[in-house]
Every structure is written in structure tokens, then in C-alpha cells.
Amidase (Neotabrizicola shimadae), 480 residues
Amino acid sequence: MIGDLGVADATELAGLVAKGEVTPSELLDAALAAVEARNPAINAVVLVQEGVARKAIAEGLPVGPFRGVPFLLKDLGAEAVDFPSHNGSRLFAGTRYGRDSAIWERMRATGVVCFGRTTSPEGGVGAATESAVYGGPTRNPWGLDHTSGGSSGGAGAAVAAGIVAIAHGSDGGGSVRIPASSCGLFGFKPTRARLPDGPYAGEGWAGMAIDGWLTRSVRDTAAMLDACMGPDLGAPYVAPALKRSHADAISRPPRRLRVAICDTTFTGEAVDPEVAEAVRAAGWLLESLGHHVEPGRPKADVPMMMRAWTDIVGVGSALSIRSKLGDAPPSPDLVEGVARGAWAYANTLHPTRYLEAVGQIHAFGRQMAGFFEGGPDILLSATLAEPPAKVGRFAHATEDYVGYRIGPGGIFEYSPFCAVFNASGQPAASVPLGWSASGLPIGVHLAAPFGADEELIALCAEIERAAPWAMKRAPLARGS
């Protein structure tokens, strides 16, 4: 029996199952033992459904790329009949679903053994995971005083702590890439509409949100993308077709690429010196691999985009609350401060503002496309402007929703890079290449033109081969 899932990636674990060296039940036992031993410190795994997992094994798992591998769903979206959800909120605690979402149907077909969900902030808003419905914050296995990120913070913490090798997440403003950066993992946001949204949502946050995974290896993400990509029935739009699969793309290096490196924010402000140094080191690595690297940053209207993003998400939060409460105002015993503030703010907006904001997001996407047209193939930057924040800094107590997002010291100052590519729809990834002097992970961010997922993930795999990160483990995962 394998007693520690903290080293192998999901592909390796599936290979052991296929060779008969370990059984799915033994892997599940190990994952549940890791939950018991490590989860009290990080508060990442919730709504455990061991019986559902045991039943799936007993009835026979699908023969897919991750057959027998323990798995966790984010507690936001990924609707599943067998996995009730709190959706990060006391208002939605214990929600059950009448049918499975398309994304869960495709993930289940890979053969994963899902046994629970991972924590998320209320409404999926924010770069930290500290929802009241879970009784406390989710903490970072690399440093328990620090956040694991958000909104897929529970997924990032669970993988970094060695509980599972792969976990589902989603990304509407960096919610896969922020935890990846915070937890020393790989996180990839595909091109808009690469993955299905239905049937519970037509699109997420005007097309800015999409599912994804927190993984230890590029190959795990590539295999899961290949298994899950493609529109579901009735999808309003689809991503450009790939020329080859993600798995095939990572099997060989990409062509030599033109890389624009930005060691500031995209509007020219300084980032933490350790973060800037990690970006420059990544640039030197890419140069050593034969890529052409030179300074550059987009001239797109980032402040306009972030205001539009804030308004769209505020309206989405208000709509979610209204679906449960109607026109009644949300009370503090059911809804946390940031979401109450979003509800109140959305009610001040003119009825035409939502469509105006969507139009601004689309205009911004055209600006970003123009940056890549005839210019760089890849934009290299930091994922976050500083190492992982302390727990409590981005708690949801405030009702100043706009200030929380784009005010001084707010989320956007901390995470000024990720939402850019949710708005543009372009593929982007966080790669665990940097470490602070105190031992906290620092992610490096790579983005590519719309639809160029294969080239981006191939570059990520080349970086992984040149600067392997698999053996770097969080102290909690090492049992210390």
C-alpha cells in the first residue's frame, strides 16, 4: 500500500493502478488518512463522501487516464448529484443537484475516485479562501500563517499538502493560477469556452470564468484538458479547434518563441523585489532554452477592464443572492460582508451598466489581441505582485465590495495580472519557479494569444523539464 501521495503525480498513480501495484481502494485509504492527519491544520477538504467513493470503486471505474486516482471537487460549481455543496456560502449550505454538470461527467469518465469537495470563498470572489461556512480560513501548507489563495484555495492546499495529486478548480479572475502560485503548483487557464459550462450555467461571469485543475505536473493538466475539452450541448460559443491534443503538444518542445517580459505590473507599478527577481530568472531560463526575450508590456486599458470586471462580478453576486432571497436584503447570519456589499453595489448600477461592462471587456480583449498580433508569442510576468498574503488580510468582513476589489490595498493590487486574461479569454498559466527567502512559493505567469493553448502548454512542459519542481514539497506534506 502507498502511504504517502505527496510525491507522485496523478499520471504516475494511475500507472501503478494499471500495473496492479496498488488498488484504487488503497489509494483512497491513503488519501483519507492524509485528510485525517493534515486537513485539521489547513481546513481544505470538506463534505467528505467516503461511501460514494467506495461505491464507485466497487461498481467498476471507467477506464480513463486517471483510473483509481483520488480526486476532489471544488465546492463551487461542478454540480454533481452525489456531492452536495455549500458553494462557499451559508446561504447555499447543503445544496443538492438533480443532475450532474457536463464538466463533472467528463472528469468522472477519466476514472478518478472523488471523495469530497474543497473550500472556496463565498461567491468565488477574492484571492484568499476564508469562508464562514467552513468555520475558519484555509491555510497554506508552505506556511500556515499565509493564505493558500483563492478562489480554488482548498484545491491548492489539498494538493500541496499531499492529500491528492490533482484537484478540480475554476478560474474567473485567477482562481486556479492564484492558488497555484501560492502553493507551488501548476495551474492552467485555457482559452475561453475550451471547457463546458452547462447545464447549470450558460456562461460564467460573461465568459470570463472557466474550470481548471491544480496539479503537480504539466502532464496531469494536459491529460485532464484533453479528456474534458469541447462544448456541451447548446453551448453559446466554442473555442477555436486545436491542431493537436494537449498531451501531444507537451511531448516535444515548442518552436523558439518571442517572449515579452514584464517585471512590473502591466501598468508599470513595481512588484515585490523577490517576485520581480523570479520573473527575471524565468526570462533568463527561457533565453537559455533559445527563446528570444525582451522587455514589453501591453498598452491595453487595464483600469477600465478591472472596473468592468468588478461590476460584472458584483451583478453576478447579487443575482446569486436574489435566487435564494428574492428582493429581501441579505443578512449577516447568511451572507458575508463582501457579498452583502456586492449586492448593495449592484443595486446602485444603472440597468444598462451590465451590457456596457460586457462591451468594455470585449473591447479590452481586442486590445490584448492587438498586443500579440505581429508582436510577442508569449507574455511573461509574475502571477501575483508579492508572495502569499497573511491569513486575514483578504477576509470577507468588509462591505466595501468595490474597495475590496480595486481600492488601495485591495485584491487587484495584490493580483494585477490574472484577471487580464479572464477578460481577454486568452490562455494563461502559473508555473512554480520562484521561492521567497522565507520559503514561500512565487509563481511565474505565462500567457499566449487566444486559441494558442497547445503552444503555451508545450512551453510550460519545456520549462518543467529544464527546471523541475516535482520534488519540492511543502513542510506539511513532509510531515513537519
